[in-house]
Amino acid sequence: MRSALLFTSLMMMTLLAAGCQTGVNVTTPTDPPVTGSVSGTSTPAPTSANTVMPTPARSAIADTTRQPAWLKERIRKILAEEPTNPPVQVFRYLYNDQVVYYETAPCCDFFTTLYAADGKIICQPDGGITGKGDGKCSDFLQKRSRERLIWQDPR
User: Fold this and answer.
1) 106: which residues sit within 8 A by CB, 6+ positions away?
2) Which residue blocks in the chain are alpha helix, DSSP H?
3) How many angstroms from the chain centroid is the CA of residue 46?
4) Domain-by-domain residue ranges, the chain?
5) What pLDDT does 30 receive?
6) Mean pLDDT throughout 49-75?
7) Do the Cβ atoms of 98 and 92 come closer than 8 Å?
8) What is the mean pLDDT of residues 28-43?
9) In this structure, what are the phi and psi dihedrals at residue 57, rounded to the nearest 5 degrees?
10) pLDDT of 38 strictly over 70
11) Engineered SS bond to 122: which of 13, 114, 131, 132, CB 3.0-4.6 Å?
């Protein structure tokens, strides 16, 4: 019995040693090719940093010089809440010959909001389950002009 156990152990060690000597070579997508060249962009090495919260690119075209007081207060309220993905943006447009402000939705089936220049809500032009908003200004997306990004959540 003892010799059978010893024989089995020796056989397993021999098989393991033979398997380890086969020269297995492991590469990752970031390793350069052995021959030739790689077409396209290379894959960056993985990081150990937690990437649950994406960092949106800051917009260089945001116009912060013309923010009315009510909009500055609205922005303060947005910044007091949890960041959203995608980040909330506020655009200024000309709609029916009036300056209006359009606030994007924080996600998915939420309504967007269209404000008059004095901060009163005009309508919710899109979003919601149907994607068509509240129906009060269904022509906004077609008639808007002079788009200008006023603010984007930088978080």
Assistant:
1) 84, 86, 88
2) 2-20, 69-80, 140-143
3) 18
4) 69-152
5) 60
6) 67
7) no
8) 60
9) -70, 140
10) no
11) 114
